[in-house]
Amino acid sequence: MYFRLNPECYLIRGKKLGAIFDLIDHKIYALNELETEIVTSCEKNNSIQGERKFLNELKQLCLGNFYSNRSYIQKLRVGSPTIEKQSDPPELHRAFIEINNSCNRNCWFCGHNGIKRSLGCMGCNKWNENGRPLSIERWKEVIDELKDLNCMDIFITGGDLTLEWDRTIDILDYTNRKFTNIYITLHRQSLSIDKINELAGKANMIIQTEDFNDVQSLDTASLLVTRPENFENIEGIQGKNIMVDFIIERGNLLPKDLPITSKKKIQPGSMYQFFNNIEYHPCLGHTLAICFNGNVIPCPMMRGHSFGNVSNKELYAVLKSEWERIDNFWELNLDKIEKCCSCEFRYSCADCRSLEESLTGKLDGKMLCNYDPSEGKWS
Ligand code: SF4
Ligand code: SF4
Ligand code: SF4
C-alpha cells in the first residue's frame, strides 16, 4: 500500500521538520519529526509501513490518499517560470512613485532620521538626499512608461503630498484608469474633508497616523506608526483596514507575539503567492520604487541600492541595462536568506528585506524571527 499527497498539497522540508501546504484550502500543516519522515517517505513512493493512523488523518483532511500501486501524482502548478523568466520587458507588478520630498513636520521616526520601520514603504518619509525633483511632465512620462511595462499597482508617496496639492491631483488624475490599483499615502494631520472628497474614487487612501484613536475612526485604510512595546494595547485592532508600522530600534525588547517575529508572520496565501515565493522575494519580487529625484531603487526604504536614474533616461532603458542587478533583488527568495533557507515555512513567510538589511547589515541577514528551523522550535 502507498500513500501520496494530493496534487494541490506540497510537502516542504526544513532542516529538521516539514510542513504540508494545501494550496486550495490555503492551509499549512506543521509536522513533527516523525510525521515529516513518514510523509517524506510516502512522497518518495515507498510503501507504507505501520503509519496508517496518521495517514488516515491526512486523508480525512483531504490532503492525500492511499493507492494500491506506486503512483505518479502530477502536482498542481500555475504560470510558467520559464516563460516568465524569458519575458521581455520583465514583469513589473508594483511600483512606488515618490512624487515629492518635502514636509513641514519633523516626525522623529521619519526616514531622514534613519529610523527603522517595519512598513515604512506604506507611510510617508522625507530624505536627506540630493538631486533635482522630477518635473510634473517627467512624472507623467514615467507613469506612461510604467503602464507600458504592464505595471498593475501603483503607490503614490511623499513627503507631504498636500503641500503641492494641485500637482498631486494633476499626477493622480494622470494615473487614472491606467493601473488596476492606485494608492496614495497622506498624513492624518494634512487631511481635510475637502481633500478626502477630492480623492474619493481616484485612489485608495492610506492614512498615516500615530494616534490610536484615528485608526478607529477612519473609514479608509490606515497605517498606525507605533513602538512594539504598544503591541499589547493594539493587538485586537489589526484588520483589513489597519496596518501597523512598528518602529524597530536595536535595543528594543520585542514582545513575543509581535506579528513581524512570531508565528503570525507565516501567512498561508494563494497558490499564486506560493509559486511566486518559490521563485521571487515575497515583497521585492516584481517591484521597483522611483524616488523624487528619479533614482530607481528596489523599494522605497532601500535607499542604498540604486539601479539608475530616470531623469534623462527611460525606465525601460534602466531595466534593460541593469536587469541583472534588479533581478538579484527580485529573485532574493527566502531560499537565499540565512536561517530561512533551512525553514519549512519559507514559501509562506513575510519578510521585509529593507528592515532586515538595516538591522543585520547584510542583504541576506535575518534578525526578526523567533523560530529556530534547525531545532523546529519557536522561542
Ligand atoms: S509626516 Fe511623514 S514625511 Fe513628514 S516628517 Fe512625518 S513621517 Fe516624515
Ligand atoms: S523568518 Fe525565515 S526562519 Fe523565520 S519562520 Fe519565516 S521562513 Fe522560517
Ligand atoms: S521590503 Fe517590502 S515591506 Fe519592506 S520596506 Fe521594502 S517594500 Fe516595504
Automatic annotation (TrEMBL):
Every Radical SAM core domain range: 98-198
InterPro entries documented for this protein: Aldolase_TIM, Radical_SAM_PqqE_MftC-like, rSAM, rSAM_sf
A GO term for molecular function: catalytic activity
Pfam families referenced in this protein's UniProt entry, alphabetically: Radical_SAM
CDD domains on file: Radical_SAM
Keywords carried by this UniProt record: Iron, Iron-sulfur, Metal-binding, S-adenosyl-L-methionine
Name of the protein in its database record: Radical SAM core domain-containing protein
Organism: Methanothrix soehngenii (strain ATCC 5969 / DSM 3671 / JCM 10134 / NBRC 103675 / OCM 69 / GP-6) (Methanosaeta concilii)
